[in-house]
Amino acid sequence: MELDKPKNYDFENIKIPLQFKLSLLWIAVTLLYLYGDYFELYVPETAEDLVSGKNLLNSPMKLFIAASLLAIPALMVILSSMLKPKISRILNIIFGLVFTAIMLLIAITNIEPWRSFYVLYALIESVITSLIVWYAFKWPKKQSLN
């Protein structure tokens, strides 16, 4: 009597549409931005400086600019899947490059023990936004029928 050999079950590799991948990457980077800003509150004197107005966003205009800038990744979650591919591709490349540059700048300007988490997050965020640029740049073209 021959024993049944164990069956080799391969997992199905489900093809995820590019627009959905881009949206997921923007979600991930947005969450990291939020976590970084949240953990920033644990840095000594940060909360006091926020209350007293001794911080980078110490005017209505600066706060508005920062809020507008950080609205972009959240909007890209939606826009990556709703816009026409050509427009989505362009916006993902542009904003991916912009946010990669911003995060790399943050990484090199926050090298101090209390902000090491910020450097870590900025580097991870840079990798994610670089992936966004890469996926958008490599966006497959439609096959022509000719």
Rg, rounded, reads 21 Å
Q: Helix count? A: 5
Which shape, going by the Cα principal axes?
Answer: extended
Order of helices and strands: HHHHH
Sheet of most strands? none
Q: Mean pLDDT across all residues, rounded?
A: 91
> Using DSSP, what is the number of strands?
0
Helix content: 55-70%
Counting structural domains, the number is 1
Secondary-structure-derived class: mainly alpha
Poorly predicted runs of 5 or more residues: none
Portion in strands? under 5%
Q: How many angstroms separate the termini?
A: 59 Å
Description:
This protein has about 150 residues and is mainly α. The chain has one domain. Helix content is about 70%, strand content about 0%. It contains 5 helices and no strands. The protein has helices at about 20-40, 45-50, 60-80, 85-110, 115-135. The radius of gyration is 21 Å and the shape is extended.
